[in-house]
Amino acid sequence: MTRPRILLDCDPGHDDAIAILLAARHSELLGVTTVSGNAPLERTTRNALVTLQLAGLDVPVHAGAARPLVERARHAPDIHGASGLGGPELPELTRRAASEEAVRFIVDTVRAHGSQPHRDPTAPLWLVAVGPLTNVALALREAPDLAQRLAGIAIMGGGVGFGNRTMAAEFNIWADPEAAEVVFSSGATLIMCGLNLTHQFMIREADVARIRGLGNPVATFTADLLAFYARAYAEAFFTRPEGPLHDPCAVLAVTHPHLIRTEPRHVRIELRGEHTRGMTVVDERGVRSDLTPNVQVGYEIAREAALEVLCETLASYGA
């Protein structure tokens, strides 16, 4: 089967770094674009470059939006550390971003490689977005035709029934709700990997030890990332050291779709609620609903099989 082509929009971030490593092995990764999110833009861009450098991957990085469409930038140092990649000792950077024009890169790449009309089943081009959706929204505003040229947009964001930055809102959507509304109303084929799905893919101490045991530099880097990440999650949310691998789920939804069960739903973004701003409002009424589904919402992931894919991928960096 032909590997999908992917543009990866991210805000590294521990789980973003792992998403990069997965996408590079299981797709034709055309480029990485960065956005402010888990850390400020300068740091997320550096972290994407560091991850690619450590893995020996020749993939261009284009820096994008430094702030959301409307509000001030907000970050997550409590989970990802001040650098955005707390844990491992990061090497001196020997490469630079290809540009600071992520939106232009997205538009040009999709128009050059995407299909018209709608998908090319022989070589699908997916946009995988695992940070705040600012870059994606700006690209769709500039070029609405992208929605039909892409096979789809796989999003790590939102959730069914609960949040993590507020009672109702997940971080990536909460960080730029207006951008999320642009994307969710664009008419593109969407897959949403929200908290209800990603919290099924927990990384635990035994998993970190297994990854460290692979012995290659990329696996060691990943184990150091995950050990820090699991401790941070334990302090912020849980009682034991484990953390959900959010962003890899969106990559797997494209590269290994059989691992994830989705259902069509109508989803809107709450922009006004005092307690619910940034919430993904998912219509769960089933046959009673008169709203047309606009998103494939993820509900289940085959956790053990996904972990096998991750470990095999990390082992391949030592081959």
Q: How does this model look, in words?
A:
This is Ribosylpyrimidine nucleosidase. It comes from Truepera radiovictrix (strain DSM 17093 / CIP 108686 / LMG 22925 / RQ-24). It holds the Pfam family IU_nuc_hydro. It contains 13 helices and twelve strands. The chain is α/β, with parallel strands linked by helices. α2 links the parallel β2 and β3. The longest helix has 20 residues. The chain is globular and about 55 Å long. An eight-stranded mixed sheet has the order 3-2-1-4-5-6-12-9, sandwiched between helices. The model has no long low-confidence stretch (mean pLDDT 95). The protein has a single domain, classed as Alpha-Beta Complex (Inosine-uridine Nucleoside N-ribohydrolase, Chain A), CATH 3.90.245.
Q: Spell the H/E element sequence.
A: EHEHEHHEHHEHHEHEHHEHEEEEH
CA-based shape: globular
CATH architecture: Alpha-Beta Complex
Radius of gyration: 18 Å
Major sheet, described briefly?
Answer: 8 strands, mixed
Measured by DSSP, the beta-strand proportion falls in 15-25%
CATH topology: Inosine-uridine Nucleoside N-ribohydrolase, Chain A
Which residues form runs of ≥5 with pLDDT under 50?
none
Which sequence of strands runs across the widest sheet? Answer: 3-2-1-4-5-6-12-9
Distance between the termini: 23 Å
- Mean pLDDT across the residues is 95
Count of alpha/pi helices: 13
Question: What helical percentage do the residues reach?
Answer: 25-40%
Summarize the structure.
This protein is α/β, with parallel strands linked by helices and 319 residues long. The chain has helices at 14-26, 41-55, 77-80, 102-113, 134-142, 146-149, 171-175, 177-184, 195-198, 205-212, 217-236, 246-255, 303-316, and strands at 5-10, 28-34, 61-63, 125-129, 152-156, 190-193, 202-203, 243-244, 260-265, 267-269, 280-282, 295-301.
